[in-house]
């Protein structure tokens, strides 16, 4: 008989959390041992016997939640935004003191989105111009999205490696925000519109041609295969992994 992996979900009553609870319950190799809300004590994770914690809470809580998990030897799969460089550095230090514990921070769990970002990074060195448009529901609290920030960072890195100049732009006057925001030299535009879930376009332009790489999530179910992949693999990847692509073979 296969031993089931005991999993706990933080933020279980939220939109993503409720989908994660459902997906874990429907997985034959996992067992849900705790589904906690924002006010529930983290000590319940220990009492429940969780081995993997899925954090789908809010930016104000995620750092404390993950630190608790690491300090108690629990692996963590994190989909909450707010992990800036300072927080990530602190987590790396904490993980250094707790070898064997794995943490995955994923800006996006949709496999198609992860692939689209990887494809965009590959294409970045071949086009003179690039800009991003990310489109989400109006209840999203951050802009630009974590996915757009990571996509822009990977594109910028690829272009630097190829010694490419910045995208041409002759704009001399513009209203605030008209040209989006600058993420590592890449222009990113955020749309917030009722009816949307999570969507992103990367626009590449060259002489006489345009390449668009677009991904659409129409329902939060689209994130669950990536969440389950993270749960199943985080224990085999000690230390910190940023981005679900770290668990995928995208080198070919």
Please tell me about this protein's structure.
32% of the residues lie in helices and 26% in strands. It is α/β, with parallel strands linked by helices. It folds into two domains: 128 residues, 3-Layer(aba) Sandwich (Rossmann fold); 108 residues, Dihydrodipicolinate Reductase, domain 2 (2-Layer Sandwich). Strands 2-1-3-4-5-11 form a six-stranded parallel β-sheet, with helices on both faces. A five-stranded mixed β-sheet has the order 7-8-6-9-10.
Q: From the helix content, strand content and strand pairing, which structural class follows?
A: alpha/beta
Instruction: Report how far apart the termini are.
Output: 36 Å
Order of helices and strands: EHEHEHEHEHEHEEEEHE
Give the total of beta strands. 11
- Strand arrangement within the widest β-sheet reads 2-1-3-4-5-11
So what's the oligomer here? single chain
Q: Give the low-confidence spans.
A: none
What is the CATH architecture descriptor of the largest domain?
3-Layer(aba) Sandwich
DSSP summary: helix tally? 7
How many domains in all?
A: 2
Write out the CATH superfamily name of the largest domain: NAD(P)-binding Rossmann-like Domain
Rg of Cα set: 19 Å
Please tell me the overall pLDDT: 95
Shape: elongated
- Most strands sheet: 6 strands, parallel
Binding site for (S)-2,3,4,5-tetrahydrodipicolinate: 137, 146-147
Keywords: Amino-acid biosynthesis, Cytoplasm, Diaminopimelate biosynthesis, Lysine biosynthesis, NAD, NADP, Oxidoreductase
InterPro entries: DapB_C, DapB_N, DapB_N_CS, DHDPR_bac, NAD(P)-bd_dom_sf
Protein name: 4-hydroxy-tetrahydrodipicolinate reductase
